[in-house]
């Protein structure tokens, strides 16, 4: 795995476990588009709609709704794995 994507992979593991605070610590230090997407997922899990929508805009992604955190985590995991290959 590329050094750049390794922290994001760790953040995804935290997100999958529902540990959004730990994931937040990682993604807030990264200015990439992928990190912005994960940051949006963090705020979905946190229940902060406005912040989640803002991070999805920064990521250039359509906001999926507050009920779609798990499918977003799965999609993000696929993209992070693809980016590290």
Describe this structure in words.
This protein has 85 residues and is mostly helical. The chain has one domain. 71% of the residues lie in helices and 0% in strands. The chain contains 5 helices and no strands. The protein has helices spanning 6-16, 20-27, 33-46, 49-59, 69-84. The mean pLDDT is 92.
- The number of helical segments is 5
Low-confidence regions: none
Oligomer class: single chain
Sheet-strand content, in percent, reads under 5%
The share of residues in helices is: over 70%
Cα shape = globular
How many angstroms separate the termini? 7 Å
Number of domains: 1
Largest sheet: none
The helix/strand series, from N terminus to C terminus, equals HHHHH
Structural class: mainly alpha
The overall strand count is: 0
Average residue pLDDT: 92
Rg calculated over all Cα atoms: 11 Å
List key phrases describing it:
85 residues; mainly alpha; 71% helix
Short structural description:
With 85 residues, this protein is an all-alpha fold. The chain has five helices and no strands.
Give the SSE map.
Layout: H1 6-16, H2 20-27, H3 33-46, H4 49-59, H5 69-84
Helix pairs in contact: 1-2, 1-3, 1-5, 2-3, 3-4, 3-5
